[in-house]
Amino acid sequence: MTAPDFSKDCKDDLSLAAYQYNLPPDRIAQNPVVPRDRARLLVVDACDHHKHSYFYELPNWLKPGDLLIFNNTQVIPARLYGRKPEGAAVEILLLEAQAPLQWLALVKPGKRLKPGAVILFGEDLQLPLLIAKVVATDAATGGRLLQFEMPTGLSFEAALQSLGQVPLPPYITDSQATPEQYQTIYAAAPGAVAAPTAGLHFTDEVFQNLKHRGIDTAFLTLHVGLGTFRPVEASDITTHAMHAEWIDISPTVVEQIQQTRADGGRVIAVGTTVTRALEGAAQNGVLAAFQGKTNVFIYPGYQWRVVDGLITNFHLPGSSLLMLVSALVGRSRLMQLYAEAIAQAYRFYSFGDAMLILPEAKREDLG
Questions:
Q1: Cβ atoms 76, 224 nearer than 8 A
Q2: In a designed cystine with 134, which of 34, 117, 237, 277 is the match (CB 3.0 to 4.6 A)?
Q3: pLDDT at residue 367 is higher than 60
Q4: What reaction is this protein's catalytic activity (predicted)?
């Protein structure tokens, strides 16, 4: 096939135009591979070297003493369909909790949902399971701040499970995937509106083989929200403002990282969300236990503090995730790897294949 146009004439790593590429529509994975660990794996192991593998072979590419860090967030059924009291249909996508029973959400139709508007959820609008009132608009996201109440006494979590749907990304348009297939097998902390997709490839068998190889594991939480999938629109990417996302890194995880370093091991982040959590918690130069929000934006020139290597999927053109990976291996090289992946019929995006960037491939001159 003809090699795609990867904007080779654009040399500026800080220009949005440098992160565009053409992806044939049939490369966008609509369904996950079964079993999960049979996805393909592009292994980037040294400067100008890469190999083609499969995800179940991941333990063979790592070294005893390495530490894999996972995001244990759980996707909630964040998409809800309701009606205004007069009957007009409303769709909302929960983004993040702001206070007890108060959520920031994207809404459709937004222009008709001004502060004071009421949304009813459930089959019987005379006795709804859930009621939301618009209390404010949010200029940063274009969303609404919603205050919920449960007139029937049902808990909010139970109401979501009854009424909500797990929201798949908009580029997945023809999928037969079950909600469980859009969750990692280790998801434990409800709160995300999108999956940490690099973790979708892991199976019990892979975890067992990692343990047998002497590769350690640790878990943190970043509730995936708007910061992950909000598009970069500024032509100068340095002016892009990331939306903050909630993270929780325990003292135990910090101790595991410190011990790994002391023993000569390597810290491998499973996904860009883990990368942002670790680097976001180390912005003062030292990683410490942290619970709060981070809006760290990683792009070429970033000075790495914690992460040595990365497991990640293939990301959308012009996305902050593509820029993060470019900060690790270099933009030009990453574009060449993407061209190779397209030519080799790799599957892209959330249900797609994966890439392993080993520390030997890290661009130290970029950070």
A1: no
A2: 117
A3: no
A4: 7-aminomethyl-7-carbaguanosine(34) in tRNA + S-adenosyl-L-methionine = epoxyqueuosine(34) in tRNA + adenine + L-methionine + 2 H(+)
DSSP string covering 43-112: EEEETTEEEEEEGGGHHHHS-TT-EEEEE-EEE---EEEEE-TTS-EEEEEEEEEEETTEEEEEEETGGG
Q: How confident is the model at residue 212 (pLDDT cuts 50, 70, 90)?
A: very high
The encoded tokens of residue 254 equal 């910090």
Closest CA to 354 of 268, 278, 296: 268
SS (HEC) of 142-169: CEEEEEEECCCCCCHHHHHHHHCECCCC
Per-residue pLDDT reduced to its tens digit, 332-347: 999 999 999 999 999 9
What is the rounded distance in angstroms from the CA atom of residue 195 to the CA atom of residue 258?
Answer: 28
What's the whole-model pTM score? 0.92
> pLDDT tens-digit profile of 31-46?
999 999 999 999 999 8
Give the model's pLDDT for residue 364: 58
**Peptide bond preceding 109 in cis form (omega within 30 of 0):** yes
Ordered by where they begin, the domains of the chain are: 16-75+177-366 (3.40.1780.10), 79-163 (2.40.10.240)
Residue 139: its pLDDT value, please? Answer: 87
Instruction: Determine whether 247 is exposed, middle or buried from the number of CB atoms within 10 Å of its CB (0-12, 13-18, 19+).
Output: buried
Q: Judge whether 70 and 189 are in contact, CB under 8 Å.
A: no
Element (H, E) at 191: strand 189-192
Residue type, 256: Q
